[in-house]
Amino acid sequence: MRSNNAIAYFTPTYRGLPVQFMVGMRDATTKPSNGLQFYNAVFKYINGPWHLAAGYEQQDNATGTSTQKVFTVATSLRLSAARFYLVYHTETRSDHSQNVAMYTASASSVQPGE
Q1: Using CA of residue 22, residue 23, residue 28, residue 30, what is the dihedral sign?
Q2: How many CB atoms are closer than 10 A to CB 58?
């Protein structure tokens, strides 16, 4: 994700758990021109064959008339030569122009050493 006037922080990985944060400040091109326009947080957990991630972000449009909220949680598990994935993703807007919820399940083959 790229955002003007943004500050991001990526924590060191501790026991398989890296965390990422980002905030984007408003500027003269947005209404109002001060405060936060965008922020997100992502948490990951990686432990051997099991991976888990969750993220949330919130962003105002440039005119300040609508806020988009996005939430995603995903997990995967490697079993032998396959990796299985489950994902839940939502996107909503405060002006009701968007309201999406998706569920996904998939699988892929994994090369040795991955």
Answers
A1: positive
A2: 16
**What is the reported pLDDT for 85?**
97
Cβ-contact 41, 55 below 8 angstroms: yes
- C-alpha span between 32 and 94 (Å, rounded): 17
The beta strand positions in 48-96, using DSSP E, are 50-60, 67-79, 82-93
User: Whose CA is closest to 40, among 7, 74, 76, 65?
Assistant: 7
Q: Integer distance in angstroms from the first to the last C-alpha of the chain?
A: 26
pTM of the model: 0.79
CB atoms near residue 48 (< 10 Å): 8
What residue type is 26 in one-letter code? Answer: R
Strand order in the sheet with 36-47: 6-10, 19-25, 36-47, 50-60, 67-79, 82-93, 99-109
Task: Please check the confidence at residue 35 and state whether its pLDDT lies above 80.
Answer: no
Give the integer Cα–Cα distance in Å for 60 and 82.
Answer: 40
pLDDT at 32 over 70: no
